[in-house]
Amino acid sequence: MLPNRMNLSKIVEEQLKRLKAQTGITPNVAARIAFFKSIESGHEFDANIEHRLDGTLVLDKITWLGKTQQATELLLKIRYPELESKKLQAAWSSHVEYGIASLRNEKTLYSFGYRLLD
How does pLDDT run across 10-47, given as a tens digit for each residue? Predict the structure, then answer.
């Protein structure tokens, strides 16, 4: 499963922080939403490409995933049964990065909520 302490890339981390400043949505909640939007869209993680996990926001798995922890880990294990802990974290990060692209330009909490209904 996923490691107990996780982080993202610097780029994604900055996008999550910018989104928080604009909408008030915390980075961990925005990351959860981005992950599921990515899964829903059909994005596939490529384990052959190096994914940098160089962000400084290192949080516990339970903080990043909250009540979605079991669902998130199950989806990752179903999609990527061959991956182990660190590569699974890279897959999660890749999905957050892909999903945040559809949310990063939201300016208000209202527009963010409206976008989730799409």
Answer: 999 999 999 898 888 899 999 999 999 999 999 999 99
Q: How far apart are CA 30 and CA 46, in angstroms?
A: 23
pLDDT of residue 109: 58
pLDDT at residue number 6: 95
Asked whether the beta carbons of 102 and 43 are under 8 A apart, the reply is no
- Residue 35: phi and psi, rounded to 5, are -60, -50
What's the CA gap between 45 and 37, in Å, rounded? 14
Q: What is the CATH number of the domain that holds 90?
A: 1.10.1220.160
- Nearest CA-CA partner of 75 in 62, 88, 87: 88
User: Which residue in this structure is represented by tokens 């559809």?
Assistant: 102
Q: How confident is the model at residue 103 (pLDDT cuts 50, 70, 90)?
A: confident
DSSP letter assigned to residue 59: E
Q: Do you know the residue count of the chain?
A: 118
Task: Give the number of domains in the chain.
Answer: 1
Domain limits for position 28: 5-116
46/32 Cα distance (integer angstroms): 20
